[in-house]
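queue> holo job accepted (flavin-adenine dinucleotide)
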Amino acid sequence: MKIAIFGAGVAGLSAAIELVDRGHSVEIYEKRKILGGKVSVWKDSDGDSIESGLHIVFGGYAQLQKYLSRIGAENNYHWKDHALIYAEPDGKQSFFRKANLPSPWAEVVGGLQADFLTMWDKISLIRGLYPALAGNEEYFRSQDHMTYAEWHRLRGASEHSLEKLWRAIALAMNFIEPNVISARPMITIFKYFGTDYAATKFGFFHKNPGDSMIEPMRHYIQERGGRIFVDAKLSMFDLKEDGTVRSAIFSDGQKIEADAYISALPVHSLKKVIPTSWLSHDYFLNLHQFSGSPVANCQLWFDRKITDTDNLMFSQGTIFATFADVSITCPGDFQNGDGTANGGSVLSLVLAPAHQLMDLPNDVIVRLVMKDIHDRFPLSRNAKLLKSTVVKIPQSVYKAVPDVDKYRPDQISPVGNFFLAGDYTDQHYLASMEGAALSGRFAAEKLVSKLGA
Ligand SMILES: Cc1cc2nc3c(=O)[nH]c(=O)nc-3n(C[C@H](O)[C@H](O)[C@H](O)COP(=O)(O)OP(=O)(O)OC[C@H]3O[C@@H](n4cnc5c(N)ncnc54)[C@H](O)[C@@H]3O)c2cc1C
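queue> job finished
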């Protein structure tokens, strides 16, 4: 079959890997000049790698890790020490380290030892979060009508632990606050964090996600005959009498025909190209239930090291939620001689919540970030900032707010030759690289099984 895939993020590339491996003729159409979507990385005029966002591989990302092995990139990421590290004022750090025991004792003992939680936090958490540890999918689904903050309070867990521990997790997972995110993804993650020891370790790419993952994916697909077109923005579909797709039309007026079509567009982009006649199906109408979380990523190059932490860091009460010194975590890039880097720290920081940042000029954002960096890293106070960049994504991953999960669409649409992939489609992960990889695999498998090829 000839299959056209729109969007070259992790979802589109994963679907393509599955389909070229089954011998199909695959064409990917991507509107930008670079591949990777939200994981894309590009070189600026100084030769510096600019990331759409700092990206971490979790131990539990079974599908993504299978793809990384399949494309020969299994050595392109490295695991870090198994700990949640919180950057505190004046250079202090606090830790949540898993104990060297089987789960859930690893987490219970680790939690009891965490120095940033009070004894009352610990008792209230063990008592309050038990239903999440013991719960099953049905229970998690039944809690989707309330926010995580509501669930946490109903369970009698402490306000301090909500602010200190879980706020950081909500911001890292979906870039929104605990009083906005649904309880469902949060308690699903507790179960997963609390019952699988290896699932929560953090992996960093050796260079950056572009060079270490997206580029090997591109190579794998093209080597097997897949064709990739950039600067190819899908703008509409031409339909047959029965409502199925006859051809796809691009913004420059070009038309292509295929046996089947997969949208691997983000949901907000897909909504713009859905034919009005398809909105008679709830399946397509329900896509309007989704809205994107705004987020920004800031990179800072310093003339000296301001930290020696080789891991992801979390932070509370700062403009950034999660961050890392990529000159330490990613030894294949950001080193002396790579663009601006001179051996000093290169911080990559995810700014969330970011709705109030979208209209601010980048230099103002950098000033706000630097104020908090000076507060958390005393060594930065005498360091020179060599360069800064800000990437804003007004609609990034879909907001996992209450009552939205039930609208996540299956990869098979009601239109015979049209399928969906993308992190927002139905799979058991929240929007993430793993969710995107799973969605791409499901779209390809379901397409092949439905069309019998
Ligand atoms: C700042 C940030 C940090 C993140 N950190 C992590 C992390 O640490 N770990 C993790 O697992 N996940 C993380 N994520 C989430 C992860 O990046 C996404 O869930 C995942 O990459 C989404 O993949 P996707 O293929 O579904 O969509 P996308 O990556 O959005 O890909 C969609 C593609 O479609 C293209 N497109 C759009 N419109 C058109 C059109 N009309 N025609 C043709 N092409 C089009 C886009 O250009 C894009 O390339 C992060 C996201 C951000 C923004």
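queue> The chain has a mean pLDDT of 95.
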